[in-house]
Amino acid sequence: MIRIFSVLGRISNWPTVWSNCLAAWLLGGGGSPGRLAVLCLGATLLYTSGPVLNDAFDTEFDRAHRPERPIPSGKISRRRVWILGSALLGFGWLVIASLGMAPALVALGLAALIVLYDAVHKRTVLAPALMGGCRFLLYIVAVVAAQGGLNSLVLWRALALSLYVAGLSCLARRESSTGAIQRWPAGLLLAPGLVALLAGDVTLATLWIPGVIFAAWVGWCLGQTWAGSRRGIPRGVAGLLAGIVLVDWLAVAVAGPRMAFLFAGLFVLAKVLQRVVPAT
User: Fold this and answer.
1) Burial letters for 125-142: b for 16+ Cβ neighbours within 10 Å, e otherwise?
2) Which CATH superfamily includes the segment(s) 2-274?
3) Taking the model in full, what pTM does it have?
């Protein structure tokens, strides 16, 4: 049952949720570690509800194109997946609501967007934008829960993250469809680097190490994806998903070496978990 839950919830992406919360928390002025832990728990529950409900919504599609998924393979019933996903969504919102009115309201919007994405993502070209919007709102949830609150710097960082996620989502759609792989999403993947350069809160001396690592990683992932091989596209997309942690590191490059090691650890953890549980 643990294996089924791990696959349904795409737990290999949990480190990217934690890095989102940590980066936005730091940009918002931080606060008590206990409050950050509650935020990460609520965000993890909300995130996990997304892919779980996604499998419930996509059952018929998965029967035709991904029969190995838990529902079409008969490992769990669709009804149980609906119940599990709804419970995760509700409990996740309640956990974040305990942090105050502002986090509760933004989290309510995030929960609604998660459900909307799951319901329509196979039927609209705007699905990558909806996915990016979910990560944008997660940043906002984290920053309004922090002691400093919302600021323009966080909005720019959240926008950069949402563009990156939209870009990788465009590429991920090719995993279960045919046709030429588009190259324009690469421009969206560069948004975090451009924002980091133009935001004015960091120097090149501070930025160059995470910037070079981020650029090199995205370049490698794009090379895998554009190769168009049967294994290359999933490998590239999984790498870009782990790269969300590098986006967050870029966002708080001024935080110093201690935080750099923490983000590096989250990145490695994401890649290790991907060897156990598929990221998509």
Assistant:
1) eebbbbbbbbbbbbbbbb
2) UbiA prenyltransferase (1.10.357.140)
3) 0.92
